[in-house]
Design a protein that fits this description.
68% helix; 2 domains; rod-shaped; alpha+beta; Alpha-Beta Plaits; five-stranded mixed sheet
């Protein structure tokens, strides 16, 4: 029974809500429908009780409100327009309780019903923005003062008083029901606000999570775009981009820079004899061996199938670069655990900035030319590029 009632209430308060409504408008529509649902339902009970006690004129007021409320809820369901419902309801809720009190004979017999009029300023406080809620409160206070001024006349001209027992019963019912209605209206609004805030927080957290995932995905894409998938070393694009920056730095601070191109000798034979999987292991091992020889800030990159490149910064002695080249050859010549024998060697071409070239493309071209000169002659050796006079 309670489940069915809850489903009915949920369906009733959402009759004006549309999918494209903003969070504020949805909350406003849902909470505003509570006013006619709460007061409209109780007004029927009040009307029946007034009829039972022979108060036909007072009975017509709550019953009329119920009919008007049902019409406006139907109108809201059809049009999804909250404006008419809001304005009419707040006017009726403000005026009808005072009119009902006047018809009952003023404060002496009907003061308990004017508490329902306080729904108007309370509703305005939740639905309106700016200074508008204050106007509804002022209107409530003005009607209250007016009721006090005419109270004596209402008492003197009232001819159909209710029994004292009925007065006490209505006093208890109006006070308890009115305050309960106001309490639940405010409670519902606050609860929905909290739910909306929580939902918004969840959306923000989800957006942050997606942003973080996107950031991480972009980092991965950038990594794969600038690094070799097999060895994890920087690739040709990374080398060229950073070499350009390193050359600019070297020009500015008058430093020397060395570029080494390395091509492995005999690597095709390893692929043919042991297969490409073993060849990949050799390339990985060569990359690690070369990397161990470099200083922080220097670059080791794999720029092709069996080709590597090095950039050595702050070169003060050419002999240091020659030693590095020889150590690379020695490391490449060492045995590899995953193949039984190896005749692997390394041909290395070297060019220097600023002696051999001022620009990146020329520096790369000279190092490449020196490397091919080694491969055509002795192999497994290094050669420094010589400018042609």
């Amino acid at each position: 029974m309670m489940t069915l009632l809850k489903k009915y209430v949920d369906a009733a308060i959402n009759i004006g809500v549309e999918e494209n409504d903003s969070e504020y408008l949805r909350l406003k529509k849902v909470s505003l429908t509570l006013v006619p649902l709460i007061i409209g339902s109780l007004a029927i009970v009040w009307g029946v009780l007034y009829i039972f006690f022979g108060q036909y004129i007072p009975a017509s007021i709550p019953l009329s409100y119920s009919v008007i409320s049902m019409f406006h809820l139907w109108h809201l369901k059809k049009t999804k327009d909250i404006v008419l419902l809001q304005h009419v309801q707040m006017v009726l809720v403000l005026l009808l309780p005072f009119i009902l009190m006047w018809s009952l004979g003023g404060f002496t017999l009907g003061s308990c019903v004017f508490i329902w009029a306080f729904f108007a300023p309370v509703a305005a406080l939740t639905y309106e923005r700016g200074s508008k809620p204050s106007y509804w409160f002022y209107a409530f206070m003005a009607l209250l003062v007016f009721s006090i001024l005419i109270d004596k006349s209402l008492v003197e001209n009232h001819t159909t008083p209710m029994p004292q027992v009925a007065v006490k019963v209505f006093f208890l019912l109006n006070i308890s029901a009115g305050l309960t209605g106001i309490f639940y209206l405010i409670k519902y609004f606050i609860t929905e606000k909290e739910k909306s805030s929580y939902a918004r927080l969840r959306k923000e957290q989800e957006a942050l999570r997606r942003t973080q995932e996107l950031y991480e995905a972009n980092e991965k894409l950038e990594y794969f775009a600038t690094h070799d998938a097999l060895t994890g070393l920087p690739n040709r694009f990374y080398l060229q981009d950073n070499l350009q920056q390193m050359l600019a730095y070297a020009k500015r601070y008058d430093e020397r820079l060395a570029l080494l191109f390395i091509d492995l000798d005999g690597f095709k034979a390893i692929n043919d004899e042991y297969g490409h999987a073993k060849g990949d292991e050799v390339l990985n091992s060569v990359g690690k061996r070369i990397l161990q020889l470099m200083r922080e800030g220097d670059i080791v990159a794999r720029i092709g199938g069996d080709e590597f490149a090095l950039v050595i910064r702050r070169v003060t002695d050419i002999k240091h670069v020659e030693n590095i080249a020889q150590r690379i050859i020695d490391e490449v010549n060492r045995d590899y655990e995953f193949i039984s024998s190896s005749s692997l060697g390394a041909s290395i071409g070297i060019s220097f900035f600023p002696e051999h070239a001022q620009e990146m493309d020329a520096l790369i071209s000279h190092a490449d030319d020196a490397m091919y000169a080694v491969k055509k002659s002795s192999k497994n050796s290094f050669l420094i590029y010589k400018n042609e006079d």
